[in-house]
């Protein structure tokens, strides 16, 4: 942890605005540093006291025996700015500013104040956490520079989970969730307004802590990608899983985020694509962020997703199958020998096929459970297990079930979860180190997340990772006319419709002869984006005379508009089995984004599209296509032959390469439709914007 | 509770196979009848004992001083059958059979045994609960005829919730869920194999208990609809909400249900439509079944779904807006005066627009909370409230927050929920009678369910309910040829394509002249369902000569097949803005079902369809259309005019009426496509099956 060492492991901490009252913002850090065994020096600073919470108190920073490595600035408003300046000049390494009323309140003046503080700090080699931060808490070193109320509840907080957040509450709420489950959190950091040290930069430093086995992130805004990219590299390198909860998924959420932090709103689908690209699991909500935590800490090596379910309730068997099917975990098909052996053990009215229903017979014979587990353990079809014990208690040997389950998990080395509603039953399993969830839905959902995340990380690691696509911006962007757009695409290897650009009636007629059959005639102007509405698209023109006439009409229309006349395109009529859309744009934060989906007129209505971040592989492109609702059509349905997905994948990869190539300065691409056929695909319409 | 009084409130209960051990199947009911204050007579029967659990024990049924109203049969297998026969002959009113090994194990022999027991019972006026039942538990009367382990955990179980289930575990697991939340369950009944008294029939009797305020159902199989229909009538009449968890949603779940109960698998989407039709809320899983229970018991009268959120965490504000948006609850737009008043109370860095972010300022000033609530209470835009307190504790006056919240809820009379993760915080609110959930997602989801269920019940009550559609079955079903299908539909007022059925080449040519323009020619035979594949559909035939030739070809094709030749259809070519599908079939359990959706060739790929049960209104039909993914197209997108949804709704209603009319004996209808246009819609293809 060399990086940001002064933030995570300072040798001395001063508190400007320290308070005797441990429930005040300036009192909490003093209390926590003592409570959680901080080994370094504690310097409370408060001009009106000589001692605070048993520590010698100083009148000012200047009175300290040394320059502290970290200073917690717990005074408000402009006093905080002055304190930061003092710290910088005194040689402090980290100033942690708790005061609010900066960029989160006023995106102009507030942000300007933040920038001023950061400038002064950097001039003196100091870094800033905050402002508007609840603080950092490293329970590994005892450096708890935080005023969180949550830590008042715990005597000790030790473990292998790191939680980082821009929000104060969200840096600690997961700690409160996990603690009752016996899961300790080692890091709980809130970075506030991220004026200097961002949650991403801090996360990289935390990811280097070898004691961290799982990292959780709460993000309200992602203003830049570079730290998260580096974080992903560091984490994948050491197989550290990261789960991120990014709020502001919906318009209402984005509006709320903007009004309370002034934060930039990220395009949510791009966030999805970005996190997936980097092997980071995106949690839908708080519960999703913490629910599977235990499973990540088990050290399992999952090899598949075929589930075996065992319960003493037939209803739970059915609901488990429903839940598994819903998340995409198939029920394992057990071998005939397994079935035979189970039949030898279980009563005739039990069910020996998976899910295995022990029935209420377990009340008469508690040994049934321990007897069948070894049989199931031997079946190679099982990748993961769920044991559902909705009701047990007097008459059942629950401690034996728990011991048997733990031994079974040990024997197989495969993921195993238990669903038990009754706290008395859950406790017995937990005491044996088995992961317990209240119902089969939570259990299966967590199991699926764990297995799927493992698969995702393996996929991202296996992918040869090129350098991340650079951000480019253009002072000015200009639409290419359609002929130039098509030419650009053709020069990058995309299959475009056969066409000619005619600059005279004679050329137009010659083009008709050359292309043959009925043609499409389109007016071409870099000033006109919506050609159809002006009558600049004519389909099925069937004779050279007609082409000539249309040429003349279109030239007149364009010139009457006062638009540049770049000629008239004569193109082959091209049908397709399905109209596909391929698009690309440059996200201001995440850079180039490629979109593919169901195209045609209603692309915005059906929104059956997926996103990919370059660089991506052919496999990535195929996975993206497989997510579409129209995916079954690619295989061919109702006796149709399959469509030529290979060339579509080629086209996607080429668009990705073109967007990744900053020298090409392509700002956006809109290809709709791309006609997909049994053999090949063809770009029919293209709008490309380039930067200058 | 006159109905099934002997099952729910017997004056005397005998237990055949009674046991001294309260953890044995035959010991539990004796124990529970004593423990939960049963006032009637308890008669343990066991030939080898004189006393059981302090009660005088009898050698046999014949030795009892009277015929008991209820007998619990706690002996196994064939002994149970003998006992049932004894009971019937002795004048017992209810035999509750706990033994398993009947229909759930063997759908043939096991079911036959059940039928035999029921026959004997009915001959003597006795009714049967079970077999394979865990038993009934009415905590209102203390009649606990159950061997559930769950009730060992509770000293008293009192409340206003009724839980009925076919499964034993699921009749009690919700009790275990609700108890720690301080919510009592009055009824907890497991009906097992439903050989005689079904869960539905019992539910009607329970719904008549005026103390029941909310009914929960777990259903694994719905073999007949009549009891659930009657239940819905009874419940709606007294405003009793019903929430049903029906498992076997997925193929894997259905397979599990079949292998452990041999139960008939219901078509899941029809179950959805049926429950919605009857105002019953369908829970997706166990948690969904119980999660909103508290809200139903508050006695609120919700008037809308606009939400106001208040939190001391900006992150929770954002996540609440995300959660609300996801479930479809908009954030209320507060009045400018409200905003002004809030600004006067809150610090400048707080957010006064909804969601309202109090920020960590609440730590410095606990009164902020109590000060703003009365202001918000006055705003008419608010329909429901959520207060998010992710972290509080020392330094916060949580008891005051809880009191203020309770007073606020009282003042507004509007639904209010709290999201609080920390148990210490949750307890304070619960102590004031406020409903608390661990996170905003659960809170908002429960609130939305409660409001939406209320809306659904109001809608179903407002709908003039005709008699439910009858089930009809046909020994034989026969496909009508297309001409007859179209004629039948036309006679019921559906707009069908202009067509003629020609029986000779001359008639075909005359039809071409009469219809005008290009035509479609289709071979017509009641033996041929897939015409296209045999070359029996020709589009765009453009001359009378061509029509004549096609006529001759098609006659030859049909005759060569050895199929009936019913003529050749000449129909107008009809385009449409969108191809719609309307279908109908008769579900063996639920009767007629009408389907509408996105039609055309890929109807099975996109599955963008919804179901309706006749009788349904035009409003119901509109709501069904609004659920489709293609719904935005109806309004007109990208400058298109709207489509004629009114005539589509007409067509749907007419199909509903036709299916509800049993005398018409229509078994199924498949109209694909129905061409929907700006003006009108037209049925182009029709396949109708009739019963005989």
Automatic annotation (TrEMBL), chains A, B:
Residue stretches in coiled coil: none
| Example GO biological process | tricarboxylic acid cycle
Q: Give residue ranges for domain CoA-binding.
A: 7-102
> What's one Pfam family the UniProt record gives for this protein?
Succ_CoA_lig
Q: Which UniProt keywords apply?
A: ATP-binding, Ligase, Nucleotide-binding, Tricarboxylic acid cycle
Recorded GO molecular functions are: ATP binding; ligase activity
Report if keyword Nucleotide-binding is assigned. Answer: yes
What protein name applies here?
CoA-binding protein
Q: Which organism is it from?
A: Tardiphaga robiniae
């Amino acid at each position: 942890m060399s990086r940001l060492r002064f933030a995570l492991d300072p040798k001395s901490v001063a508190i400007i605005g320290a308070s005797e009252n441990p429930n005040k913002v300036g009192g909490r850090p003093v209390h926590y540093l003592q409570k959680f065994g901080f080994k370094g020096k504690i310097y409370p600073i408060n001009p009106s006291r000589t001692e605070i919470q048993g520590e010698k108190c100083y009148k000012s920073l200047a009175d300290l025996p040394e320059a502290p490595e970290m200073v917690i600035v717990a005074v408000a408003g402009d006093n905080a700015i002055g304190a930061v300046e003092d710290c910088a000049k005194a040689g402090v390494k980290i100033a942690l500013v708790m005061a609010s009323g900066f960029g989160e309140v006023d995106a102009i003046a507030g942000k300007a104040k933040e920038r001023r503080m950061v400038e002064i700090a950097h001039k003196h080699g100091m870094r800033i956490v905050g402002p508007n931060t609840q603080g950092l808490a490293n329970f590994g070193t005892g450096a708890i520079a935080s005023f969180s109320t949550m830590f008042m509840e715990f005597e000790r907080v030790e473990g292998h989970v790191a939680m980082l957040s821009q929000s104060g509450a969200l840096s600690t709420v997961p700690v409160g969730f996990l603690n009752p489950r016996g899961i300790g959190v080692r890091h709980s950091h809130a970075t506030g307004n991220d004026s200097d040290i961002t949650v991403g930069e801090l996360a990289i430093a935390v990811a280097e802590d070898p004691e961290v086995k799982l990292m959780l992130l709460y993000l309200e805004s992602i203003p830049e990608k570079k730290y998260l990219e580096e974080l992903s590299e560091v984490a994948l390198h050491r197989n550290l899983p990261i789960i991120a909860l990014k709020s502001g998924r919906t318009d209402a959420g984005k509006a709320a985020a903007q009004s309370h932090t002034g934060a930039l709103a990220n395009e949510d689908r791009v966030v999805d694509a970005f996190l997936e690209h980097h092997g980071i699991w995106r949690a839908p909500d708080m519960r999703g962020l913490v629910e599977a935590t235990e499973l990540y800490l088990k050290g399992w090596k999952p090899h598949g997703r075929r589930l075996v379910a065992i319960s003493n309730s037939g209803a739970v068997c059915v609901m488990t199958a429903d839940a598994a099917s819903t998340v995409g975990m198939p029920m394992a098909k057990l071998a005939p020998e397994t079935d035979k052996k189970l039949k030898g053990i279980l009563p005739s009215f039990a069910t020996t096929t998976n899910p295995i229903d022990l029935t209420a017979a377990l009340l008469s014979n508690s040994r049934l459970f321990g007897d069948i587990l070894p049989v199931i353990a031997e079946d190679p079809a099982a990748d993961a297990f769920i044991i559902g014990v909705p009701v047990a208690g007097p008459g059942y040997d629950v401690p034996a079930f728990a011991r048997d389950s733990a031994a079974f998990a040990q024997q197989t080395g495969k993921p195993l979860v238990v669903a038990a509603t009754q706290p008395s039953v859950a406790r017995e399993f937990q005491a044996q180190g088995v992961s317990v969830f209240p119902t089969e839905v939570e259990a299966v959902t967590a199991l699926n997340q764990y297995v799927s995340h493992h698969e995702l990380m393996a996929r991202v690691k296996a992918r040869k990772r090129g350098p991340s696509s650079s951000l480019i911006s253009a002072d000015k962007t200009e639409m290419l006319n359609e002929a130039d757009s098509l030419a650009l695409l053709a020069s990058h290897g995309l299959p475009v419709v056969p066409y000619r650009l005619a600059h005279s009636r004679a050329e137009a007629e010659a083009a008709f002869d050359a292309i043959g059959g009925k043609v499409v005639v389109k007016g071409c102007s870099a000033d006109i984006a919506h050609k159809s509405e002006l009558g600049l698209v004519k389909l099925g023109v069937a004779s050279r005379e007609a082409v000539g006439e249309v040429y003349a009409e279109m030239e007149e229309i364009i010139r009457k508009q006062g638009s540049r006349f770049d000629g008239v395109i004569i193109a082959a009529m091209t049908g397709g089995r399905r109209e596909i859309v391929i698009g690309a744009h440059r996200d201001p934060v995440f850079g180039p984004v490629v979109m593919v989906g169901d195209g045609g007129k209603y692309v915005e209505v059906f929104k059956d599209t997926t996103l990919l971040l370059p660089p991506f592989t052919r496999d990535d492109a195929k996975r993206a296509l497989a997510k579409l609702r129209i995916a079954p059509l690619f295989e061919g349905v109702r006796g149709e032959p399959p469509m030529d997905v290979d060339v579509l994948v080629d086209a996607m990869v080429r668009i990705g390469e073109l967007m990744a190539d900053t020298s090409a300065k392509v700002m956006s691409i809109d290809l709709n439709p791309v006609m997909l056929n049994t053999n090949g695909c063809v770009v029919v319409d293209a709008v490309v914007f380039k930067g200058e």
